[in-house]
Amino acid sequence: MIRPAGRPFAAGVVVAAVLLVAVVSCRTVAPDDGDSPRSAAASSSFMVVQMNLCLSGLAGCFDATGYPDILGDAARRIQAAGPNVVTVNEACRRDAIRIARRTDYDVHFAPVRYAGAPLPCVDPGGRGLFGLAVLTRRPIVRSESKAFVAQAELEERRWLCVSTDDGVDVCTAHLENPDSSRADAANDAQCAELRRVLTRRASRLVLFGGDLNRRRSCAPLGSWSRTDATSDRLPGVQHVYGSPAFEDPVARVRPWRFSDHDLLLVSAEVVSRTP
């Protein structure tokens, strides 16, 4: 949620950090048929990192980013982890592109409207519109993004999914901050809609990372769920989900002074399949 700088920042608002899926072992890629996960690599290890950047320039957490210091540190974290995918909440279009260029990732950005109109990032300006982003080591071949049906406040809430050329779908979302009964109901409705969005992609390899402003899971039936529950700041509200083909997920939390949320990293193994 966008809150004017100088006002207390609500504990439920999460600076999305995001989802990174990294292949750290050798992988064999087959053409994607669009219907099944058979194109994913056999015996591949993945690492997922979830970040919330808090870069609108309007939220109370923006001062902590030390802009532009946060951009350099985010790029260094990505390069050090060597992930395959990064999902980012509370980003600005040109900032997301800068991080992607520094790390040699592909990127797709989805703007989020505020009070019915696009929201340019400020302080400084010239950074593009505010929204969500996904960065991927593999090329992005398709994307889809829609606003949730239920909305409670001025900041639009939406989801974003991309498909990479090796048959993996990666999604992110930033749900309503439940600081009122109306917003709490909207958060529950958005959670239910997100579950349906991810369920519709169940025939593929699916990973999700986002700041959901809630501790209860929105993962589809059969998928695993991990959170930043061990964080010292706003624990349990950043989530990573994976479809059953991703096995043995292990979550780690890394302190991050540039945001009001720490980094969530999840490692998993993908089930071996014959292409």
What does this structure look like?
The chain is an alpha+beta fold and 275 residues long. The protein has one domain: 4-Layer Sandwich (Deoxyribonuclease I, Chain A). 16% of the residues lie in helices and 32% in strands. The chain has 3 helices and 14 strands. The strands form 3 sheets. The protein has a 6-stranded mixed β-sheet with strand order 3-6-2-1-14-13, covered by helices on one side. A hairpin with an 8-residue loop joins strand 13 (246-254) and strand 14 (263-270). Helix 1 (69-81) crosses helix 2. The longest helix is centred in the last third of the chain and has 19 residues, at 181-199. It starts with 44 loop residues before the first strand and ends in a 5-residue tail after the last strand. Mean pLDDT is 86; it is low at 1-41.
Global outline: globular
Q: Provide a count of the helices.
A: 3
Number of domains: 1
CATH class equals Alpha Beta
CATH architecture: 4-Layer Sandwich
Low-confidence stretches: 1-41
Please identify the oligomeric state.
single chain
Across the major sheet, the strand order is: 3-6-2-1-14-13
Rounded mean pLDDT score: 86
CATH topology: Deoxyribonuclease I, Chain A
Using the CA coordinates, give the radius of gyration: 17 Å
Structural class: alpha+beta
SSE order, one letter for each helix or strand: EHEHEEEEEEEHEEEEE
Main beta-sheet strand count, sense and barrel state: 6 strands, mixed
Name the CATH superfamily classification: Endonuclease/exonuclease/phosphatase
Straight-line N-to-C gap: 43 Å
Give a brief description:
With 275 residues, the chain is of the alpha+beta class. Helices cover 16% and strands 32% of the residues.
